[in-house]
Design goal:
The structure holds two protein chains of two kinds. In chain A, about 70% of the residues lie in helices and about 0% in strands. Chain A is mainly alpha-helical. The longest helix of chain A has about 30 residues, at about 170-200. Classes of the chains: A mainly alpha, B mainly alpha.
Chain lengths: ~200, ~270
């Protein structure tokens, strides 16, 4: 009787924890690095998209974040949670990009090009459910947006968000509560607009 | 159940919330959702987004290719305790070299009790600064904020010198003060450069706080050398010019942090 076929190494990797993959990546395991990139990139991309509201810019930031993660991989301490470490670097990339963009916008404003459209226009064509999370988040102040995207889009716990953002759990909770209150108001306004549109002849 | 309580539930429920609309929600929350369109919409938006999106294969390939080509084994950075010890050692070395050249006239002018008290405070704050720098080398490792470290150091030394020094005469306040400040900063500079050399091995996400911590640590070296050397034991001189060494040093460190942050933000993208 022949031996059962050995499972695909990539499939085997899927079951491993992110921390185990990161440790293997530190040991020079390419397959682990590959799986890690595949597993973490969608969440990181959503984190960036929630802040920049532009998929192409989010693509660039994702790339930049991975290059920095690669360079800083020795600073991950085996045995610790990986996500706060990853998001601390991602957040750093985002802050750098924000600084750069702000300076570019300032230079553009000196050229005084009138009639620029606002960055985000809430789409309410299909009522409340049509509102994309990114559009909703765009209406929040930066710090609240960051907390909500880390908690609810990236899936970090309160403690992990506090570590990734170098703040306290209490401060994270407070920002989240404020953000929820604002999101609820926005959703209710969007719902009313959609209702009015439907009832209009 | 109120909307506020619903917020708490959302906050503490599994972050992805993919199953949050199913049976896993408590009956109270389900009853609230049935009557509150706002909470329903909020939860709906979060669930809809948590379903996830994919990253374009071209983007993933652009990440994979250069990274996988350069994957090599790396040794994880030493722990905070080891790094703290390294910074303490560097600070100690810089202080010893500085004192060797400038002499110990100030140390001999102090009473034995004063010597113990001053050395104890210098040691504790230098360790605190070393710890803060070591923590800042690792992303997501909670450290001591630079402003807190500086405030603690200023309060500790001003309080200590107020208790120890009973002579309030100004003497040649400006002339001798500027000399002490200048020499103190000169001694702090090599300590800061040594600390920066080690700091490069880490990944600093808070450059301003880290710069301030390096400034405080290096300032402690300057203060140590001057305390050991300067025989002027008047309160105005020590409180302004000696303490001023690490205040100024922390400020310069924070400024260097701002410059490094801006340089990194405006540097071309790494690849």
């Amino acid at each position: 009787m022949s031996d059962p076929p050995s499972p695909d190494p990539h499939t085997q990797r899927e079951a491993e924890s992110l921390e185990a993959l990161m440790e293997a990546y530190q040991r020079g395991d390419r397959a682990a690095a590959d799986t890690l990139i595949e597993r973490v990139s969608p969440a990181l991309h959503r984190f960036f998209a929630a802040h920049v509201g532009d998929r192409r810019h989010a693509d660039d930031l994702l790339q930049d974040a991975w290059f920095r993660i690669h360079k800083a991989r020795h600073t991950y301490r085996p045995g610790e949670r990986l996500l706060p470490w990853l998001y601390a670097i991602a957040r750093h990339v985002k802050v750098d990009a924000f600084r750069k963009r702000r300076s570019e916008r300032y230079e553009e404003s000196l050229d005084a090009t009138p009639g620029r459209a606002p960055a985000v226009e809430p789409a309410v064509t299909n009522g409340v459910q049509a509102l994309e999370m990114e559009q909703l988040l765009a209406a929040l102040p930066g710090s609240q947006r960051e907390v909500i995207s880390l908690l609810k889009i990236s899936g970090l716990s309160l403690e992990e968000v506090a570590r990734a953002t170098s703040s306290s759990v209490g401060s994270v909770k407070q920002k989240a509560h404020r953000a929820y209150a604002k999101l609820r108001t926005l959703l209710s306004e969007a719902g009313q607009k959609a209702k009015a549109k439907r009832s209009a002849p | 159940m109120t909307c506020r309580e619903m917020d708490d539930l959302i906050l503490f429920t599994s972050a992805r919330l993919t199953s949050a609309l199913g049976d896993k929600l408590p009956a109270e929350a389900q009853a609230h959702l049935a009557t509150c369109p706002h909470c329903r919409a909020l939860l709906g938006s979060l669930v809809a987004d948590s379903a996830g999106r994919t990253v374009s294969p071209a983007v993933l390939e652009g990440i994979r290719k250069p990274i996988l080509a350069s994957v090599t084994p790396v040794r994880p950075m030493p722990g905070t305790a080891a790094l703290t010890a390294v910074f303490c050692l560097l600070f100690g070395l810089a202080a010893a070299v500085g004192s060797f050249f400038l002499g110990f006239a100030g140390f001999h002018a102090l009473s034995p009790v004063d010597r113990v008290a001053v050395c104890f405070f210098l040691l504790v704050l230098a360790i605190a600064a070393a710890f803060a720098i070591a923590r800042n080398m690792r992303p997501a490792a909670r450290g001591i904020p630079g402003w807190l470290l500086l405030t603690a150091a200023v309060l500790a030394f001003e309080g200590l010198f107020f208790l120890l020094l009973k002579d309030y005469s100004p003497g040649r306040f400006l002339h001798s003060g500027v000399i002490c400040l200048g020499f103190g900063l000169l001694c702090a500079l090599p300590a800061a450069l040594l600390a920066l050399f080690v700091l490069r091995k880490g990944y600093v996400v808070a450059p301003v706080a880290t710069g301030a911590a390096v400034g405080v640590g290096a300032g402690m070296v300057g203060l140590t050398v001057i305390e050991l050397h300067c025989p002027i034991e008047t309160f105005p001189h020590v409180a302004v010019w000696h303490v001023g060494i690490f205040v100024l040093s922390a400020g310069m460190g924070a400024l260097a942090g701002v410059l490094s942050r801006n340089f990194r933000a405006f540097a071309p993208r790494s690849s």
